[in-house]
């Protein structure tokens, strides 16, 4: 099938030009200032932005085992509505994807239900090194995930006796939840004993304690450790959901060595820890929110290219779960539907350029993870394309939410910079102005060999 997008503003990682783009046989066929060719469908894109499909390498679609919160069908619909055509799903589901067999079973499930192209992580544990080695040989598995601190699901792994063999004996990219578990546990105990300065004003049930316990140095020490391991064993490593300014010097060391990349997420760019006072559990996630100074440092690092990767850590929970008392409420937020519009809003605010949006949320995620034929408008790449109306404002309301959880932390925000009106995945129209064409499913991604 041929689809011709006519006279749109083509935004690549490097250029912005007006022209035509032909989708043919699932690929980007030709790009030119003008294409005189017939097509099965011609789309007038005058005045619209044409972007590559976004690549979100950090999601929790809750499938299998936690599908009351979301599943790979509902959450991939939310992704397509937000211009995301490729996702990589984390291993802390039920069962956890910590064996090669379970990864393959989860791939089969996603092939039946997921509307995006997808990759499935394998998670590291204290006793599954041989399974990780088995995954090394499979070019559909994007990365090994290590939780260096407690998070949703019990997969914490911070001891050298377990970490070092993984970095030494595996070859695949390692993606790290980089927080220092020892410091987190120390601060948790001190808080319980009322020995921290913040105890003077943070009561035992106050959710703000989350930001007190998981402070900047919990994040920084975790990133320091991950970068040290990457450098010691010369192993490609990706630092997930960076939140604190103190992490950045360690990231810089790893980036300069050519071994480490780092990402941040919309919650750390648009929220800060003071919002926990008003929103309580609706602002609780791991790592915890930090200060406005940290927020600005993350924006600066993105603009400078030090943090070159944006992802959502999309982690839906039901609203009633998030409204439970601290200690019972789960960490995590749904974000994927509005992640690209938030970046486009930052262009409107002159924080970023359109090219930087493409780099951060499409090109660099695909490059950092070595995902084949994704992340840019290039002939021969997969036909993953997003059409954005830059004149449309979005007033975010709960009734717009596509995710199964039915709520969004961005409710009541007004975004300017554009709204996704059409999404194409592998040359097929799968989202069209609020309507989903779900007759086909996504496919597994392919990882280039190092």
Short note summarizing the structure:
With 450 residues, the protein is α/β, with parallel strands linked by helices.
Task: Please tell me about this protein's structure.
With 450 residues, the protein is of the alpha/beta class. It has one domain (53-368): TIM Barrel (Alpha-Beta Barrel), CATH 3.20.20. 30% of the residues lie in helices and 20% in strands. It contains 14 helices and 20 strands. Strands 1, 2, 3, 4, 5, 15, 18, 19 and 20 form a 9-stranded mixed beta sheet that branches. A hairpin with a 2-residue loop joins strand 18 and strand 19 (428-432). Helix 5 (181-192) packs antiparallel against helix 7 (216-233) and helix 7 (216-233) runs parallel beside helix 8 (248-256). The radius of gyration is 21 Å and the shape is globular.
**Helix/strand class:** alpha/beta
Q: How many independent structural domains?
A: 1
**Low-confidence parts, pLDDT < 50 over ≥5 residues?**
none
Q: Shape, please?
A: globular
What is the second-level CATH architecture? Alpha-Beta Barrel
CATH superfamily: Metal-dependent hydrolases
Helix fraction, binned, reads 25-40%
CATH fold description: TIM Barrel
What is the overall number of helices? 14
Indicate the CATH class: Alpha Beta
Total strand count, please? 20
Strand content: 15-25%
Radius of gyration: 21 Å
Oligomer: single chain
Note the main sheet. Answer: 9 strands, mixed
């Amino acid at each position: 099938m041929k689809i011709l997008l006519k006279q749109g503003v083509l935004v690549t990682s490097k250029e912005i030009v007006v022209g035509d783009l032909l989708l043919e046989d699932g690929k980007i066929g030709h790009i030119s200032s003008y294409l005189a060719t017939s097509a099965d469908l011609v789309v007038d894109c005058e005045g619209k932005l044409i972007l590559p499909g976004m690549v979100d390498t950090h999601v929790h679609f809750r499938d299998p085992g936690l599908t009351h919160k979301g599943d790979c069908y509902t959450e991939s619909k939310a992704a397509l509505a937000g211009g995301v055509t490729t996702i990589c799903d984390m291993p802390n589901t039920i069962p956890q994807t910590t064996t090669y067999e379970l990864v393959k079973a989860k791939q089969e499930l996603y092939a039946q239900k997921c509307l995006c192209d997808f990759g499935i992580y394998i998670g590291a544990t204290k006793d599954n090194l041989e399974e990780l080695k088995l995954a090394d040989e499979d070019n559909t598995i994007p990365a090994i995930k290590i939780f260096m601190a407690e998070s949703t699901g019990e997969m914490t792994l911070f001891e050298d006796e377990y970490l070092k063999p993984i970095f030494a004996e595996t070859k695949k990219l390692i993606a790290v939840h980089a927080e220092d578990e020892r410091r987190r546990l120390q601060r948790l105990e001190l808080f319980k004993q009322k020995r921290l300065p913040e105890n003077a004003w943070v009561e035992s049930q106050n959710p703000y304690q989350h930001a007190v316990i998981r402070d900047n140095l919990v994040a920084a020490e975790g990133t320091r450790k991950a970068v040290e391991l990457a450098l010691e064993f010369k192993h490609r490593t990706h630092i997930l959901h960076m939140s604190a300014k103190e992490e950045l010097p360690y990231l810089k060391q790893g980036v300069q060595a050519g071994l480490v990349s780092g990402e941040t997420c919309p919650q750390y760019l648009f929220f800060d820890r003071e919002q926990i006072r008003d929103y309580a559990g609706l602002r609780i996630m791991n790592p915890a929110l930090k200060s406005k100074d940290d927020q600005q440092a993350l924006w600066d690092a993105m603009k400078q290219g030090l943090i070159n990767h944006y992802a959502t850590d999309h982690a839906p929970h039901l609203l009633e779960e998030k409204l439970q008392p601290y200690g019972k409420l789960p960490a995590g937020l749904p974000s994927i539907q509005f992640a690209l519009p938030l970046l486009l809003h930052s262009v409107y605010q002159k924080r970023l350029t359109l090219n930087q949006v493409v780099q951060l949320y499409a090109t660099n995620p695909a490059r950092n993870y070595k995902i084949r034929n994704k992340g840019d408008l290039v002939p021969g790449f997969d036909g993953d394309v997003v059409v954005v109306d830059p004149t449309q404002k979005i007033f975010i309301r709960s009734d717009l939410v596509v995710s199964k959880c039915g709520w969004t932390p961005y409710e009541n925000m007004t975004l300017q910079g554009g709204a996704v009106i059409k999404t194409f995945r592998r040359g097929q129209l799968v989202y069209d102005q609020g309507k989903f064409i779900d007759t086909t499913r996504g496919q597994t991604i392919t990882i280039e060999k190092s």
